[in-house]
Every structure is written in C-alpha cells, then in structure tokens.
Amino acid sequence: MAFFSCRGCWNERPDAYHAMSELAHATLARLGTMLDRREVSAVELATLYLDRIERHRGLNAFLDVRPEQTLAQARTADQRRARGETGALLGVPIAHKDVFVTRDWHTTASSRILEGYASPFDATVVDELARAGMVCLGKLNCDEFAMGSSNENSAYGKVRNPWDRDAVPGGSSGGSAAAVAARLAPIASATDTGGSIREPASFSGVTGTKPTYGRPSRWGMIAFASSLDTAGLLTCTAQDCALAFNAMLGFDPKDSTSVDRPKEDFTRSLALDLSDLRIGVPTEFFAAGLEPEVDAAVRAALREYEALGAELVDVSLPNAALGIPVYYVVASAEASSNLSRFDGVRYGFRAKQYDDLVDMMCKTRAQGFGAEVKRRVLVGTYVLSHGYYDAYFLQASRVRRIIADEFQRAFKRCDVIAGPVTSGVAFGFGEKSADPVAMYLADLYTVPSSLAGIPAMSIPCGFGRLGRPIGLQLMANHFDEARMLGVAHRYQCATDWHARVPRGY
Amino acid sequence: MSLKLADVHRIAHLARIEITDAQAQETAKQLNDILALIERIARVDTAGIVPMSHPLDGVQRLRPDAVTEIPDRERTMSNAPAQRDGLFLVPRVLE
Lengths: 505, 95
Fold this sequence. Notes:
The complex is a heterodimer of chains A (505) and B (95). Chain A is an alpha/beta fold. Chain A folds into two domains: 262 residues, Amidase signature (AS) enzymes (Alpha-Beta Complex); 204 residues, Amidase signature (AS) enzymes. In chain A, the strands form two sheets. An eight-stranded mixed beta sheet of chain A has the order 4-6-5-10-11-9-7-8, with helices on both faces. Chain A has a three-stranded mixed beta sheet with strand order 1-3-2. Chain A has 16 helices and eleven strands. In chain A, 37% of the residues lie in helices and 12% in strands. Chain B is mainly alpha-helical and 95 residues long. In chain B, strands 1-2 form a two-stranded antiparallel ribbon. In chain B, helix 1 packs across helix 2. Chain B is flat and about 55 Å long. At the A-B interface, helix 10, helix 11, helix 12, helix 13 and helix 14 of A face helix 1 and helix 2 of B.
C-alpha cells in the first residue's frame, strides 16, 4: 500500500489503517480518555494527524508543519503521563490559526509582509494550551490579518472546503474550520472579530465558539481590531470546546483588556435541564434573503429544542442590521492603527527599491499587503482623519452601544438567543471576491454579537443547497459561555449533525 | 459625499501605501461603495448616547513600572530586514 508518508506501522496494514482513520474521527473528549487508559500514546496521535495533514495537503489548510517539533511535544506529553500527570488535554493534538505567534513555527497572519516571521515568544493562548499538554500540529491558513469571510484573502492561496472542494470554507478562520472538518486536527484555535469563527464553522460543518470579549488573552494574537478581536475554538463538539476553554480562558496581566475573573469550569452546565430554558428568536434574523434551506434547518433545530423542553420567545434586535456599517467603521479604524507597525523597519518584508524612508514604507506596504487589507486600512485612515472622526468613528461607536443595549433588553426575556449564522450556505470561489460590499454582508448575523462582545457559537444543524453544511447560531450574555455550551451540548446529544464527516476524510 | 481621485491619493499617503493612478481609480469606486454602506449610520439618532469603545466598558489597566522580562534580542533582530551591530537600519533621514 503506497501511502506517501509512512510514519506509523498501521500505514502498512489497510485494516489497521481503517481503525486509525476512525480514531482520527474521535472527539477530543474521547482522545483524552484513550490517552488516560493508555490505549493510544500522544506520539501515535501526533503521527496519525501529521499523516492526514500530509495526505490532504490539497486542502491548503496548513501553512507551516514541522513534524520534528510536533513529535518532540508529543514525547513530552507521554513523559508527563508516564510520571503520573493527568488531564483532559494532555497529549491531545491541536493546530493554531496563523495569527497566534509561535516560537517553533513561523507566523505570517497569511500576509506576505510577515513571510518567514519567527516570533521570539508564544501567544498566551498557545502557551496555556501547551501547558495543559496539547501538542501543536502546525499553523493554519486564514484570510490575511483575519480580514475576510472566505479565506480567499490569504497570500498563500485559498483553502478548500472538505465538504465541497468548489466551495469556500468560510473565513477568516478557514484553515481552522477545514482542518477540523477534515479531521486533520481534533481541535483548532481561531479568532473572531466579526464572525471569523462562526461563519467558517457554519460553512464547514463544525462547532465554532467565540467566548466573551476579554476572556481569552490577546497577548501574541496579531491585532486586527483590538476592541473586537476574540480568540476561540473550532471543535467537533460543544463538550470538546468546554474542555479546552478550561485551559485557554483566563486573566492575563499582559493583555490590558483582559478581564480579571477567577477561572471557571466550562463543562459545569453540560447536563443542563432545558425545561427551564427560554430561547430568544430575533425576528430580524429571518429577513428576506435567507436561503429557504437555511431557514428550514434553523427552524427545525428550534423545534428540536422545543421538543427537548425549551421555550421559544420572540425577541427583537431592531438595529442589528446596522451592525455591518458600524463594524466596517470601527474595525477598519482600529486596523489602520494596528497595522501601522508593518513598515519594513523591524520585521518582515521590505521593498527592494525605494528613494527615502517614507518611500520605503509606502512601497513596502503597497507590495506587502493584499488588496482587502489595503482597502480596510484606507477606509480606517479616512474615517479617523481630520474632519471625519466625529461623523464616522464617534457616530459608529454610539450606534455600537445601541446595538449592545438591544441585546441586554433581549436577555431580560430569554437565556440564550438562537438564529442562523449566515443567510446562505458556503458560496463558490470567486462568487463574492469581486464585490467587497457583497462579501461584507456575509457577516450580517455574526457582527452584532461581536460588537456587543457577547459569547456566540455555531453548531451544525443540517445541509442545504448543493449538500453544503448549515449552522445554528447560539448567543448568550457576557460570561455565560458555560450555559451556552450546555445548550449546544444538549442539542448534540439529541442529533448527529455534528458527527458527520465529509466523504473521503 | 463621494471620494475623488485626489482624496484617494491623500488618504493613501496618510496610510503610507503607494498607489498608482490606475489603482486609485479602482480604489475610489470601491471605497465609495463601502462609504455608501457606512453612510447608513448617519441617520441614526444618537443624541445622549455615550460612545462604546470597549464591550465591557473596561478601562485601561495600569501595572507597576517595573522590568518584567528581557526580550530575546538576537531572536528579535533576526527578523529585521536590515541591521548592523544590533541596530535596525533605515534609509538616511538626516544629512
């Protein structure tokens, strides 16, 4: 049998390989149990996933893979277990979105301007998960500086959707979503600024969770829009997310916007009784333009919750549709400021020919940034420029509060809010890339909760047009992740959408 | 209002991004589309509403002004496009 990368003995025996393929479909929770029982070692798991990454390179989900570093971490995890250490994550592999800086893998944020960048330190999120024993498989492709909804804005090529190679995986965390969907990793880190975890989770048929703003550390996460950027996870299940959040979320003195709260157990509400639960359904999330299959799948999921005992209540978020214009003022303004550090002086790419210092910076940024990044930096520069700051930036910041306050009013009537993640299933390559505004509108239903800083997630709830996955969005109030994950987990106990794996993986 | 070619050149210079006339034409159209989308917030009555700059209304936390870690200078400098004697090199700015 000619597998092109044979690192483990199972590769030589197709029947044994089949068993290993099933192992790769296991949840993080199951892998942790198997490691605990010594049914598999961390080195065997790392080898298994490295083989799958190599075999499915065509997805272009990974940007940097270094088997020797991964295996060294896996050996350390096995040694820790041999010494008697335990832990749900100890020895379980993870892959990181390329916006988290890592010492042992290059970090580019999928931008040419950071090609080959070797960080002197690890991001806090990477560090916390490594301390819990997670083994890093490598770095994941994404939209450049996390700006995009299709992963087509990467300087290192598009990522394919494992469910349909003609479809985008979503963005900006497209590599993270594709990797988990294809089971090239049981879990992947990601970031969400306006929907960059939930939209790809929905498009790629996996579970994607953004916690409350300020809960995960932003230290070492390459900044896009600092008042919105939130680290989160792509996983196979809500339970897996809860297990990893226990290690990943917590106060970080190195992040000035980190929220100082005690650690909590995010698995504590997985056995939640839904008979006391009120689910708010915002009428504005079922507006014209929603694909009928998405509408039907989301409504079926809501009926499933009713069958499980929950009560549905209508809520209203009248200004949610203004989330998109508010977002493109606030996020672009913050991006223009954050990305000023890329000037060709201290790190990264520098233009080859230039006249003087300013010309060097102008040419470096013109050649180093992709089209979408430049557009947003220009929009941000304009809305912050003299004479326009009040009309654009301050006005957007005020409307942002109106949207956030509407969520608070809604949460007086319900415990969680549910609705679609996107108005349609994954679109095809090139379908929206020529029209920035059409691409921006893909985030219509994800941006409002980002602006409010509340936790939100997408869980698989069916398939729509062309057999492409559909996600159900759940949103909860600030610091109510545990309950939101419990609500998702109850659905995943009653349905099997989340357990489907695309054919060929 | 709609951005003219000269506006795009001015903004691009403020953002330190070189732009050709041909690129500025295309960019003007795209930026005007985006600004048309953004204009929708102008109609909202926001009298008396405090701008929201942090989702939890957090304020900048300060820490004691003390050395907490020593950067790895060699590794940090290894990313520099041009350097000499541990210093970043840029084109001459003073004659």
